[in-house]
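PT: before anyone asks, these are the final sequences, not the draft ones from last week. 915 residues across everything. Please model them as a single complex and drop the result in this thread when it's through.
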Amino acid sequence: MSPPLNDPTPAEALAGAGAAETGASSARGGSGLKPGRPGFGAGGRLGAVGAGVLGRGAIGIYLSVLVLLPIAALLAKAGHGGTAAFWREISTPQAVAAIKLTLIASVIVVAINALFGTLIAWVMVRDEFPGKRIVNALIDLPFALPTIVAGVVLLALYGKNSPLGIDITFTRAAVGMALLFVTLPFVVRSVQPVLLELDRSMEEAASSLGASQFTVFRRIVLPNLAPAIVSGIALSFARAVGEFGSIVLISGNLPFKTEVGSVYIFSQIQDENLPGAAAVSVLLLVSALVALGALTLASRRWSRHVR
Amino acid sequence: MAIEAHDVTKRFGDFLALDDVCVRVGDGALTALLGPSGSGKSTLLRIIAGLETPDSGRVLIGEQDVTDTPARTRGVGFVFQHYAPFKHMTVYDNVAFGLTVRRRPKAEVRERVHELLSLVRLDGLAERYPAQLSGGQRQRMALARALAPRPEVLLLDEPFGALDAQVRGELREWLRRLHEEIHVTTIFVTHDQEEAMEVAEQIVVMNGGCIEQAGSPRELYESPRNEFVMSFVGPVNQLGDELLRPHDIQILPSEDAAPGTIEALVRRVVHLGFEVRVELTLPDGRDIWAQVTRERTQELELEEGQILTVRLPAPRTFAA
Amino acid sequence: MSANAQAHPDAQAHPGARRATGGRRLILRCVALGYLALLLLLPVTMIFYRTFEHGLGAVWSAATAPNAVHAFWLSIELVAIAVPLNTIFGIGIALLLERGRFRGKALLGLLIDLPFAISPIVVGLALVLVYGRTGWFGDWLATHGIEVIFSVPGMVLATAFVSLPFVARETIPVLRELGTDAEQAAATLGANSWQTFRRITLPAIRWGVVYGVVLTTARALGEFGAVSVVSGRIEGKTLSLPLYVQDRFENFDTTGAYTAAVVLALLALATLLAMNLLTRRTRKAGAA
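LR: through. Structure below.
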């Protein structure tokens, strides 16, 4: 996920007038921040708003205030009472139920997404029908829609007074439905560009060699889509594990039944059990990060072949 | 297997790619479809392969009407311009593909794949991935892959276009020798007239969706049926309505001011290895160029600014 | 993110079997569209229907209720602060990652991606642990009479946190593709960093930034979980529009809830439209 490091450029020598780059060629593989006015790589310097140090300082403060400190506080709180306390908090029956529900629901939802997401991407790329452009745009709706509105929206169709007569409120199916809604775009958008760029002559070649359409899909197309599908799954999973707003209305948040991890954390906050909330939070965060990291790595290793 | 196309027409939207085309390729022949971009040659090839369907017309392979048969079951080997390698499979799996989808026994597959890899001189690279091969190697892999299921017909779409000059030369030679060994009816598409002349036994010249002429390289060069073929298959000078071959232009020492000759100013002498290109300006201001050997150039002591005599060949007439 | 699928010529691998492929194609299309309809389209249309079910009058009074109006403007305020901040810092971070040289780029990249992996509730909790009454800065803030948690500043922080990555992530690939040649040329011609940035870099990354801003705005506007935790959900004071929806729902005021939801949905559709138009622009600009 992190971008590769830039190679140092010899452009340092091109220092003209203006902010003085204390000069000489910067040593390759040099240490991080240099004394004086470190430039921004190419051309000797490229400021963010303002000059080098100021910019970096401001960014540093912003990120600290916003992200670093809060995350640090979270980790501190979770680890406050040591491993024993941590373990205790995440193994209360209610916590365990919530975590289990979250993980299982996320895995199921992600699997469904892999299937339907690929299918939808396929239809969007390979098929033509009136209104396709609109449908394509609407796929991004879960990205743009506030999660609470997603919940309300699902409730309208699948809750009490449903015109379809389906009422899934207070059921686990509701959790699944909400997760499917908010994670819909990930696999689709991940697969679409790859499918668009796919070399059709590979499929034609396979066909001319005698492969049936299904075999062509299975042995030629799918392997080439796999990295993108996996990458989409990674993002879906991370999103699903932490989802709150869309679930909160439709699931009823019944402990041991339809209470997901994020809702459990919320209830612990309200009960002023901050260590408990922090512990489960860290657990969820770590599982999301691990899944994200592992799947992204797998996806990258896979695509190295295909490139 | 001989190949025949009868009255094939194909449109893409408003664009007429093929206009009532008829072609015959003999069994075991090595034929080139030659023409500029947009001439319809690739389209014709793809129709023969079954990758496109004609709007009208029939395609016969070995006397059998295959127009409605899909590419999959036509028994045609196709080599794509950019090789279309299965990037996620090894060289071995690529070449084996046509056999594995037909569920041939593993031992048979292994034997055939190695046989072909030897044939195309890629032994030892079986476990590599296409990305690790050079352009020429990828092309040979594509060929091996197409040949593995023993097709009755081999079709190649601008097979050497994406390679650099030296590799191209080697592969042309190599394709010719391969054909001599295997004798599969082979058609390849090219826009490079030199390539067609060098490799093919028969050339079909196409332009704007129609066949201009079909024949051996020599026939096409010496007896072109019209201006297009003449200018496409070989260098020409255009003087008004007449087309002249550069090597037919005789350069004489300036003393020989014989009848039927004309004065010319040497504008530039370009040495291209063995051949020398002499750019001339005629008295009426028109520019032509002549193809002369090194020896002749030295004999005549040709140099820029010289004025000498040239004899132009008799103008070629074409049936209306 | 939003890729407009191009129209493909109908290149079929099995011309002879056209009819069968056509059938298969139709089935795939129906399944895909059916899934989308049941999950996406129908629920969304349902919501518009439900809102106006009881007549425009009810909707109007719901929309003009003082708390609703306050919630709306509070949301706008949060967006008005968080989006510019994230835009400026987002560009800065992108420049740092793509043009800067320092150790810790990996960490920076991770920080940028973190909001995608972290649950909004956890964001809220983390902020409370630093800026809340019992948090790290709790005492200091109390002594200086600054209210962060249970007040607007906290909501701003939460909103900024969750909408942090978008501008940076959209700008990075554009910067990468742009390459440093033009900027180096400017340097040789005597431009300083700011001039180079303003006249060479910025115009080139413009559409990536705009697209990022659109995504940031959508996210900021719609944030629910994180803001829910830090705001204390105090009626008339710390209810943003999404929180207001939940509030109305819990008070059985379905029309009020649906009305607010529809407003948010309309803003979301506007965002979608902007995303769509911009994707084509960025594609065109990139292809140039």
